[in-house]
Amino acid sequence: MTDHYFSADPSVPFAREPLTCEAWGQRLDLVSGSGVYSRGRLDIGTAVLFRETEPPEPGHVLDLGTGYGVIGLAVAATWRAHGVPAGAAFGVTGVEVNQRAVLLANQNAAALGLQDRFIACDPDLPPADVTYDEIWSNPPIRIGKQALHDLLLHWFSRLRPRGRAVMVVGKNLGGDSLQGWLTDQGYPTTRLASAKGFRVLESHREAGIE
């Protein structure tokens, strides 16, 4: 079977590759690796996400499909730069099926001194009763339409009332249809921006949704 970046245990030999990127005014020196999404570079979609948004307000944030941690670590670094204290009320959890990516994300957090604000883990580890103020994601579109829908509904159901999700999705990978589908599921979704073939979408969980 061909490995994908969303494989739990890629068989390709593990080779680390450093990269540096800018996110919301923060410089992040990171390490990526083979078998992990966007090895050695900041992918265009995530770059669009950073450029077209402001970072989330302090709270409990989920980085869905964290990869080697770039979105979640950018959130944590921005909060630290603005003097937001580390603690149970203000933190980022990155969930990721690729165990190589989980390792890299946690090592990146330690290297940046952000391990008290960010943790990456397998999607099965966060307790079922944990909820989130916001979800940020460059979601794994290539897992397939139904699998993606199941993934988003599972995690969006853990948004707190009036919580929001911000995602970047390629137009040619269904960004426009996903916007309509999420709205139909009870998560009103608008387009924040469109650039370089990507849509930045913002969804909200209404107060009364089950």
**Number of beta strands:** 9
Q: What does the overall shape look like?
A: globular
Q: Separation of termini? A: 38 Å
One letter per element, helices H and strands E, the order comes to: EEHEHEHEEHEHEE
The secondary structure category is alpha/beta
Question: What are the low-pLDDT stretches, counting only 5+ consecutive residues below 50?
Answer: none
Strands of the largest sheet, in order across it? 5-4-3-6-7-9-8
Question: What features would you describe in this structure?
Answer:
With about 210 residues, the protein is α/β, with parallel strands linked by helices. Helix content is about 25%, strand content about 30%. It contains 5 helices and 9 strands. The strands form 2 sheets. It has a 7-stranded mixed β-sheet with strand order 5-4-3-6-7-9-8, sandwiched between helices. A two-stranded antiparallel ribbon has the order 1-2. The chain is globular, with a radius of gyration of 16 Å.
Key structural traits:
seven-stranded mixed β-sheet; alpha/beta; 5 helices; two-stranded antiparallel sheet; 210 residues
What is the topology?
Elements: E1 16-23, E2 26-33, H1 44-52, E3 60-64, H2 70-81, E4 91-95, H3 99-111, E5 118-121, E6 132-137, H4 145-156, E7 159-170, H5 175-184, E8 189-195, E9 198-204
Short note summarizing the structure:
The chain has 210 residues and is of the alpha/beta class.
